[in-house]
């Protein structure tokens, strides 16, 4: 079998980590070889880049610098981990991918969605996810959830206006993409999981 590439998107605190872990457990129990990874990060070099991006000390970081660092982490990730794993027939589940850059850097930061897409076409070498699960949650609800579960990182500390733009950015993006499967993140955890499993099972049947 050729592998699958599944990504999770959504505003901070939407429940991506929760659902990714549940999906991994489900697929592993069915005997599939699953690779769990995240962005920024996923490789030793990528994790170092992640630390620079998310460091609360880096208040002076330029927006374009930030966008290029995300893309740099992605280029290493695609080459070193994602493409080889797909070639080996594995199911790769990734916490955030290009869509995060288009929404956070392209739309919310205002750098331009087309420009960010162009940078990322180089970074991904044209790799597109088989499905993007978009967990949608209003910014107010998302931040509330995150605060309950611990520390906020640099981007999570951004003002509410930024999170509103992220929410709006995902709403814009989903209209343009056929591979985005949107789910209401306020649903019950098991309900969301079951919806995700149904889509993944249908993709596996197509293999
Ligand atoms: N469907 C849900 N309903 C209510 N709370 C949830 C749901 N999914 C996740 N949570 C909780 O919300 C918080 C953020 O979830 P998490 O999976 O870490 O989100 P993300 O990875 O998208 O930031 C956690 O405390 C988690 O337990
Ligand atoms: C991958 C990616 C993430 N981000 C942001 C979204 C998150 O706020 C942060 C990643 O932190 P992370 O801890 O992974 O957040 P979450 O658990 O909410 O997914 O980086 C971008 O702005 N652009 C990107 O390309």
Helix segment tally: 8
Count structural domains.
1
The first-to-last residue Cα distance is 7 Å
CATH class: Alpha Beta
- Helical residue percent? 55-70%
Unreliably modeled segments: none
Proportion in β-strands: 5-15%
Major sheet details: 5 strands, parallel
Evaluate the radius of gyration: 16 Å
The strand count comes to: 5
How would you write the strand order of the largest sheet?
A: 2-3-1-4-5
Relevant terms:
alpha/beta; 57% helix; single chain; Rossmann fold; binds thymidine-5'-diphosphate; 8 helices; 207 residues; binds adenosine-5'-diphosphate
What does this protein look like?
The chain has helices at 16-29, 44-54, 63-87, 98-108, 113-124, 139-149, 160-176, 189-206, and strands at 4-9, 34-38, 91-95, 131-136, 180-184. It has one domain: Rossmann fold, CATH 3.40.50. It has 207 residues and is an alpha/beta fold. The protein is globular and about 45 Å long. Helix 1 (16-29) packs across helix 8 and helix 4 (98-108) crosses helix 7 (160-176). The longest helix has 25 residues, at 63-87. Bound molecules: adenosine-5'-diphosphate and thymidine-5'-diphosphate. Residues 10, 12-18, 145, 148-149, 185, 187, 189, 192 line the site of adenosine-5'-diphosphate. Phosphorylation of dTMP to form dTDP in both de novo and salvage pathways of dTTP synthesis. It is an enzyme of class 2 (transferase). This is Thymidylate kinase.
């Amino acid at each position: 079998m050729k592998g699958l590439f599944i990504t999770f998107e959504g505003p901070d605190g939407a429940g991506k980590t929760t659902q990714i872990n549940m999906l991994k457990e489900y697929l592993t129990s069915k005997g599939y070889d699953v690779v769990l990874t995240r962005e920024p990060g996923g490789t030793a070099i990528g994790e170092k880049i992640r630390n620079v991006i998310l460091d609360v000390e880096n208040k002076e970081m330029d927006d374009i610098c930030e966008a290029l660092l995300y893309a740099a982490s992605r280029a290493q990730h695609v080459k070193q981990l994602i493409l080889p794993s797909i070639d080996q027939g594995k199911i790769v589940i990734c916490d955030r991918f290009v869509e995060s850059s288009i929404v956070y850097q392209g739309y919310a930061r205002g750098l331009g969605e087309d420009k960010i897409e162009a940078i990322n076409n180089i970074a991904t070498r044209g790799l597109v996810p088989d499905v993007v699960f978009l967990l949608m949650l209003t910014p107010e609800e998302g931040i509330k959830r995150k605060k309950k579960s611990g520390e906020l990182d640099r981007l999570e500390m951004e003002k509410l206006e930024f999170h509103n733009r992220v929410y709006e950015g995902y709403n814009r993006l989903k209209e343009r993409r056929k591979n985005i499967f949107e789910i209401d993140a306020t649903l019950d955890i098991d309900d969301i999981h079951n919806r995700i499993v149904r889509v993944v099972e249908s993709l596996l049947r197509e293999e």
